[in-house]
Specification:
The chain is α/β, with parallel strands linked by helices. It folds into two domains: 353 residues, 4-Layer Sandwich (Purple Acid Phosphatase, chain A, domain 2); 75 residues, no CATH class. The strands form four sheets. Strands 5-4-3-2-13-14-16-17 form an eight-stranded mixed β-sheet. Strands 1-6-7-8-10-9 form a six-stranded mixed β-sheet, with helices on one face. Helix 1 packs parallel to helix 3 and helix 8 crosses helix 9. It is elongated, with a radius of gyration of 26 Å. Keywords: Cell inner membrane, Cell membrane, Manganese, Membrane, Metal-binding, Transmembrane, Transmembrane helix. InterPro entries: Calcineurin-like_PHP, LpxH-like, Metallo-depent_PP-like. One of its GO terms (molecular function) is metal ion binding.
Length: 454
């Protein structure tokens, strides 16, 4: 990785990332435009000696499939004139620097982007890593795509050296943008918010069942799906009864159904159908499971299947930060984005910062009863990180921007699930010792009052 230190007189730095602005058709919608403009205006009016750094994925250039080269930039300017004029105005007062991410990787490939962005007072550094100095120590800034096997650029700066993630976006995400408005709820555009990519099939199944399926068909299936777990229990009690092990549960259940008259008959019918289906699925599941394992093994050998829990991904970046800290003792803060999971993590007397995303986020929830698709709760967490020097120390401040939360869930989705718990806390203020106190002094974090994605 190359490192470039841009000349700047700033004493504090604001960081945001992963806005993914732009794309085909429905992907053009920027649901946080008002908040982003307000944030830029606040910086323009401030008297701070600051610099705004967008550490990757400001734009969604991968999501354009019908435009080439600088036509994509022209489309962005035409689609978001107020944003670009505000960038120009803010950039006159506060330096704005951006680095390429994976979704706007083309920024690293063409010098024309440097000139075009400069016209709006935005400085493009075509680097994987940049650094800044605070309190005599170094802040390491990257997007993070080079540490992701699916999105690392094999030859950074080569427009033809695209990772697997590029082709996923070209053929799935962009297509979703073109088709989204045909849906009943214009939901398909949110596919770019679904992480990790392995969640996409489950998310699509959920959206189909709760949004697109014919309502009559959905509510015909609903009682069978809701009583599926009950059917399994009834079948087990039936096996206990016919084997003579324990007959009381099944006899009691039969008596209860008989007392319910017509309702009991309907429930009994649903349970019998479920048991028949369950047995058929069980018979089919054995050969299908063997086949699926073999196919998955083949895909894994070719590197086409990678499943990592969010915690594993976060640990990978923490380990990467530790390597940087070991090689560069002067580095006090490691800043990255890419994973869309905001975090501020003290590590070895230093701090690792994930700048999160301004896109919609999804948290999956299982239904409380029956065998039904997962429900994906949408939310926004617009955030920024400020790093500055205070009394010779490096202070990392995590801030969120208020935004009305989406109301995308159907009544059925709300009835079938419990709302997700509150997010885990992120320290609002984390202090790292400056150069005058030594690199190995501990990190001190205040009581958290902000939250992170779980």
């Amino acid at each position: 990785m190359t490192t470039h230190i841009a000349p700047t007189d700033a004493t504090q730095y604001y960081f945001i990332s992963d806005l993914h602005i732009g794309g085909d058709e429905a992907l053009q919608e920027m649901e946080f435009e008002a908040e982003l403009l307000a944030f830029l205006r606040d910086l323009e009016r401030s008297d701070e000696d600051a610099e705004l750094i967008v550490n990757g994925d400001l734009f969604g250039l991968w999501e354009f499939t019908e435009l080439e080269g600088m036509e994509k930039f022209d489309a962005l300017v035409e689609r978001y004139p107020e944003l670009f004029e505000q960038l120009r105005a803010t950039g006159e007062r506060v330096p704005i620097t951006i680095i390429p991410g994976n979704h706007d990787y083309e920024l690293a490939c063409y010098p024309e982007y440097v000139e075009r962005l400069a016209a709006y007072n935005v400085r493009l550094e075509q680097e994987v890593v940049i650094t800044r100095e605070v309190a005599g120590r170094t802040v390491w800034v990257e997007h993070g795509q080079q540490r992701d096997p699916n999105n690392t650029s094999p030859e950074f700066g080569n427009p033809y050296a695209n990772p697997p993630g590029y082709f996923v976006n070209q053929h799935i995400t962009s297509r979703a943008g073109k088709l989204s408005q045909r849906g009943k709820y214009n939901w398909l555009k949110d596919i770019q918010s679904v992480t990790p990519m392995t969640e996409i099939p489950s998310w699509i199944a959920s959206m189909y069942f709760y949004r697109e399926m014919n309502p009559l068909l959905r509510y015909v299936f609903l009682p069978f799906l809701l009583l599926f777990n009950t059917s399994v229990l009834v079948f087990l009690t039936f096996l206990l009864a016919i084997t003579g092990i324990w007959s009381w549960p099944y006899a009691t259940f039969s008596e209860i159904l008989a007392s319910l008259s017509v309702v009991g008959v309907v429930i009994d019918f649903v349970i019998v159908v479920n048991i028949v289906v369950m047995l058929l699925l069980f018979v089919m599941a054995i050969p299908l499971y063997v086949l699926a394992r073999d196919v998955r093994g083949t895909l894994s050998r070719f590197g086409l299947v990678r499943e990592e829990a969010p915690e594993t991904v976060a640990d990978r970046y923490v380990e990467a930060a530790r390597e940087v800290f070991a090689e560069r003792p002067d580095v006090a803060a490691f800043v990255y984005g890419h994973t869309h999971r905001a975090a501020v993590t003290p590590v070895d007397g230093r701090v690792v910062v994930n700048t999160g995303t301004w896109l919609k986020r999804f948290r999956r929830r299982s239904v409380v009863l029956g065998l039904l698709p997962l429900v994906y709760y949408p939310s926004f967490r617009l955030n920024y990180v400020r790093i500055r020097e205070v009394d010779g120390d490096i202070v990392v401040e995590y801030e969120t921007i208020q935004k009305q939360q989406p109301h995308d869930l159907t009544v059925l989705e709300r009835l079938l699930t419990l709302a997700p718990r509150g997010d885990d806390p992120i320290p609002a203020r984390t202090v790292v010792a400056g150069a005058s106190e030594g690199a190995d002094d501990p990190v001190v974090a205040t009581t958290p009052d902000t939250v992170q994605d779980d």
